[in-house]
Request: fold
Amino acid sequence: MSAPTRRRRWFTICAITASAALVAVPAGAASSQGSPFGERTTAQLAAERLQSTGGVTAKAQAQDSDGGNEADEIAEGADQYAEARTSPGVVAPGAYGAAWSSLSNLPSTGGSWQNITNLPYNSDDSRYRDYDSNSSGGSGNVTGRLAAMAADNSGYVYAGSAGGGVWRSRTGGGTWQPISDKLSSQSTGALALDGSGRLWLGTGEANTNADAYLGSGVYVLTSPHHGTFSSRSRVGGDELESTTVHQLRFGGGKVYAATSEGVWSHSTKKLSGAWKLEFAPNPDYLPGGSLANDASAPYKNIANDIAIDPKDPSKVVLAVGWRSGDDYNGFYTKVNGTWTRITSGLGDLPSDAANVGNVTFARSADGSRYYAIEQSPEQLNTNPDSGLEGIYVSKSGSPTGSWTKIADYQGLAADGSALTSSGYMPGVQAWYNQFLTVDPADAQHVYAGLEEVYETKDGGSSWSTVGPYWNFGFSCWNIDPTKQTGDCNATTHSDQHGVAIGSYHGKSYVYVGNDGGAYKRPVNGAQDSSGHATDWTSLNDGTIDTLQYYSVGVGKDLTYGGVSVTGGLQDNGQSELRSNDKIMGSNFGGDGGDTLTDPANGCNIAEEYVYLAVQVTQNCAVNNGSWIDGSGPITSYSVAPPDNATGEARFIAPLAADLKDSSTWIAGGRHVWVQTHGYAIRSGDEWTSAYDLGAGHTATAVASSGGKVYAAWCGPCNNQGFTRGISVGNADGTGWHDITLPADGTVPNRYLSGFAIDPKDANHVYLAVNGFSRHWTEGPGAGVGHVFESKDGGTTWTDISANLPDVPADSAIVLPNGGLAVATDLGVVYRAPGRTSWKRVGNLPAVAVLQLKLSPNGNTLYAATHGRGIYTIGVRGLR
Reply:
């Protein structure tokens, strides 16, 4: 997920009024600030956060079920992703495991998937220097978000991704191989090597950003140099199924797991037998408890980390708490056999509930020091600059302290950070970005990760920003493609999550995992005069593909032949893969949302950022950067519909082209917007409102064929009063009406995620429904079924789910032969024409597929997965 307010679009701020409203110059206009990429500063980020902190907007307040004040992009995206899968209630444990088992037992179609994005993706590709590109920021080759890292002293490195499983390198990073594809969960929460060299995996990403998935438990790989994870390698029973795992820590012959349902422990010697629940602050909210179905249950037992005294493993400190604050937040230790909140004696480290949120511990190898990063709910909710309370050290080596503060956000900002604007400073996302590790050879040498990577070699007396957020804004930066990032050195991608230290050929390296993948540098590396590292290496060589696509677009490549493939990505912009490419480039920045690509010309592209911030290009956004000397050379244009400015659109909002007329586009926010100029559109003023879905309602899916338009909406969209509906009308604004969905649950009261219109008959339409059926979802009207069919323009619907596994359905597409393909959270299923039963398409791992598109000739199906890149399969082989 992108930073909460990271407008990684670079709109020039012309005015900031007293109410912090923004007026932006369209992308087709030249910069008025007189300096290259002045718009690439964080000033707008700061202004947006200032506007949102301390008071949630009406939209955010209505949709934010977690009780926090994050009216920011990352929290909005988290809400949307979770709402689609949980509303109108709470999902019971075991839902994904049961779905994977059911899917695995389906018969398979013919054909096999081919990964087309398993090649380097260069975020600094010199072909793309247009106004809205992130290119030249310094991150180099990227892949999808990595949540955890582990490394040993034999050159083996392990990378755990958010949604694409665990990967192994035998060469100190690079030449990666997936090693968890057999598991029912490809979401990583924690990776850890124990003292005997076994690799432990906690599934279920715990960054509380929610565009990932709950896990299926903890697994151990006895021979990680050679083996792969399997269901037989699970530790204990199903106690940790449908949780997230934030950390795994070892001590006293036990492994402790900090999870979304409290702290659990298990013997490290005997791996069978149940996990023991050590501590849950609010057990009534756990599965089976009296309040298990309460809307706030997922936030009532969150554990973040465990610190074990190296001198006495019986002394354990638990860091427990929800990022936005709750009465149970705090540190706990055992007193007379009972877990008891620590209320004093920690020194500088705050222990009150208001200031204990997300916490990460790290101890030195010699046991002489413990370190901690602490995020504060109070800071998050009231401080526009940062949510970081501080970084601390216990010089006694005991997690009970006494602790001394050694860094705060102001000090880190002054030590070479790229985040120096008021309203957007180090730790602004400390609830999402955290890692901490100590050099095994030096107890005073520490690496800390927030949005950036920081290093201290003297126990915290001084810090350097060795991995700045980006190079924009530094005097060394240059847009000139021949200089790449000018005199700036390469940096890491932003938003840090995982860290490990290991050796390769006798040399020690630090490995970091973030929203852009994996990077390494020597543990005792070099720095320039600004304290920035000069020796980062991207390990995203194309053999690791964990790219998190929201969408895919395919069109003919008129220059090189074949096709051009684009796709919108979580925090990695939009990828562009031309038919002759050996690497992919990034032609748009930020979070790439929905994508439209002209089938007849793959360089005609519309790309959504977030909240319907749509950009259009007619040359693939190729640009050498000369636009900084005038507006003429700009090759992309801002064409956002008006709901973008009012905030009345979903984080990833629906955007579609008419099946019969590629020049007619439909966009959904509160309104159903239509424009008929195709890729020649140059202004948001060219959109017209075909229909108002109503105050508080926002589109979740749109589709059109021959001018007949279908729009699904929700509002409220969370599990507190969730409602949904369907509206149908014409692109010219006539004939609009709301469908009366029967109260008997024929169409469930769940998130409506996609339409598929029969190209031969616009009244024949299919509906994909997200979430889980009533068996797993406790909520009003949850209903059953995931795929529905209407032959009368949406007036009546029939459930055609049949043997389809009970798994969230994300989108659907009618194939040329009349068959129907449906993208789900665990792969793709297919129903042949004239049949009623479903088959599994190919053999993808347990990865979410969010969108399906056809090649221009209709012979190839493209699948945008949220964790394993883009795959293709031949349509004729489906039978």
About this structure: The chain has seven helices and 60 strands. Confidence is low (pLDDT under 50) at residues 1-71. The first strand starts at residue 13 and ends at 16.
